[in-house]
Write a structure and sequence with these properties.
globular; single chain; 3 strands; 6 helices; mainly alpha; 3-stranded antiparallel β-sheet; 193 residues
């Protein structure tokens, strides 16, 4: 049940690491370095080289929020990896050289079974308005709530398309061919000439 406001906050989809694994892959594919403070190599040394996440033994992406983020990441791994039955990320469960293990556990509930809908909507709207009315750290950037960046990106990409670097595009074409789709057909399906 969404709140009545134009930008309801009903879910949070985030990595518990400083950046998502996909952003490290994009940097690797573009031949770019990561910013300091994001990655460590397989010996725990800081690095800006994204390749440490695609070599064996792998490095790691540091967690958000230092030790508190580490605790959140570990609990998320336990819930998504153990309770889902899909296994956790460990060297013994990493059977593919260039893939990531990405299990998921969703917990869904009906707010109407917990609180009266009018209260729910009013409190959600008031809280979002309160947070967005906060003075931004950078006056040129508004205060955002979960979902705002995704709505902005969706609007931009609906108009201008989705940017894909050359290496990622090559990997997508190779994946299509591996399941019997010819490159020309894949490009047609993707809307690319």
């Amino acid at each position: 049940m969404p709140a009545t406001g134009a930008n309801p906050v009903t879910q949070l989809d985030m990595a518990t690491s400083t950046v998502a694994h996909g952003k490290v892959r994009v940097a690797k594919n573009k031949g770019e370095r990561m910013a300091p403070g994001i990655l460590i190599d397989n010996r725990g040394r800081p690095t800006t080289d994204p390749n440490v996440m695609f070599e064996r033994p792998m490095g790691a992406i540091l967690p958000i929020g230092e030790h508190k983020g580490y605790g959140m990441a570990l609990m998320s791994e336990m819930m998504a990896g153990v309770l889902s039955g899909g296994q956790t990320c460990r060297p013994e469960t990493d059977h593919e050289q260039d893939t990531i293990l990405n299990n998921m556990l969703s917990i869904v509930f009906d707010p109407a079974r917990l609180v009266e809908p009018g209260f729910y909507n009013a409190e959600m709207d008031a809280t979002i308005a309160h947070v967005k009315a906060s003075p931004p750290a950078d006056p040129a950037l508004p205060v955002l709530v979960p979902g705002d960046p995704e709505r902005t990106t969706h609007a931009e990409r609906s108009q201008g398309g989705i940017p894909v670097d050359d290496e990622t595009w090559r990997e997508l074409e190779a994946a299509a061919v591996s399941v019997g789709i010819e490159v020309a057909e894949f490009r047609r399906m993707a809307g690319v000439n």
